[in-house]
Amino acid sequence: MLYAQKKERESRFKLAFRTVIPSLLFVITLFILFFNTDYLVIFVAVMAVITFIVTYYNLHVIYSGFDKDVIDPDTLVLNFKTFKRLTKRALAKKRPHTFLMIKLGDLEDINAHYGREQTTLTIQKAIQTLLLEIDKLGFKNVPAGVYGGGVFILSFSYAYKELIHKIKPLFEGKEHCYINDIEMEIDFALVDAEGESNCDIVFGHLFDLIRQSEGKNLSFEDHFNKERMIEKRVKEAIYARSLSLQFQEVISTQEEKPLLEFTAKLIDSQNKLIHHSDILPVISRLGLEKNFYLLVIEEVMKLINSKSITLKFAINITAFAVRHKEVMQTLFRWMKSYNIKPTQMILMINEERYYKHVTRYKEIIDEYRSEGILIAFSHAGSVNPLLEYLKHMDIDMIKYDASLAKGIDDPKLLAVFETLNNLADNRGILSWAIMVETASQEQKLRSMGINYLQGRHIASLKAVQELDTIQV
Known about the structure:
The protein has 17 helices and 15 strands. It has an eight-stranded mixed beta barrel with strand order 6-7-9-10-11-12-13-14, surrounded by four helices. The chain has helices at about 5-35, 40-65, 80-90, 105-115, 115-135, 160-170, 200-215, 225-240, 275-285, 290-305, 320-325, 325-335, 360-370, 385-390, 400-405, 410-425, 440-450, and strands at about 100-105, 145-150, 150-155, 175-180, 180-190, 245-250, 260-265, 275, 315-320, 345-350, 375-380, 395-400, 430-435, 450-455, 460-465. It is an alpha/beta fold and about 475 residues long.
């Protein structure tokens, strides 16, 4: 019997025990009163009160029992609520602990081809098979919980170094498995959580590793302390409003004025820079996107106002932050406070995953544009949902992925580039190419009719103190 089934049986036994005890006391009380009372009325009254109390107590136990399920009925492992409670208890003991996350297949795709019932049975069989394999390795009573969406977490009361040599061979080379004639991809991540008391941080870090490892199968990591330190540095820098801004000129090929793109890094308490690639996973995991991007937006607006800059300027921002109501309202208010012309501002949105509430997304984009703010989507030509969004909404600019300008001499990439650029022209959308590093690239991009060019050949990245040298 696996750990989840044992916990379910234990929970049901406790519930039954809680129900039996008051009933037993009721019978004993009834017996004593029946043989020791001379007053029938008092006896009946006491029995009525006790019956009422016991009935409602049992009713309470029954209803509370609905919330005492410990097993997820679809997968037969611990539900997330139970698993999280056990994890908190385990981490509080401050003993060596290691967590394994397993992601099974693309459930949406499997659902579409085989139906929910077959998908559920397949996921259930797959995780149970893996748990039995782990049990055979000598790891008994390992808590396993469902995280959601075909993702599971296993909790091992072992040090990372003690566990890794035994568990790693089980997963190496297993990029796919076949269950009920259904092929499923498998991804894994393993982290050492020794010294960490916050299970949400552990789970978030595991999920980040899973997303990074998709297609690679294995993401074993024992540097969790480094990740925790980055989180600490990012949080402290955001709350201290410690920011470093740089800018890069982007020239127009249509004899328009250049525009400025601002990039932001955080500065930690040791006066060291935290790069954007380290910032993004942390602010996403800890719910700090709103805080970070409001900080960036306000600091850029202050700079534009203090330098009396009239050029257009672009700020990179995640789609999540753009859709956040408080970000929108605060941005509109600050534009008035800092005397920013709406048509100066470009919000450069990057989004890797399709946002299915596209009608609502369109309404949000339209609201920004109705205020005069220019909307641009970045990384066109890479893996993102840009083309799907263009079916439903209007935008002002698209920034092409760096691979297209770098690979302009490759016929295949050039064909993709020209197709996207024709689409932009037909829709009246301004185009923007980056990573322009040679005169030859610039000439070819100009001949394609690209509207804006950016890269080291055009202008280098500069500190904001050099804004005084720019014709604003």
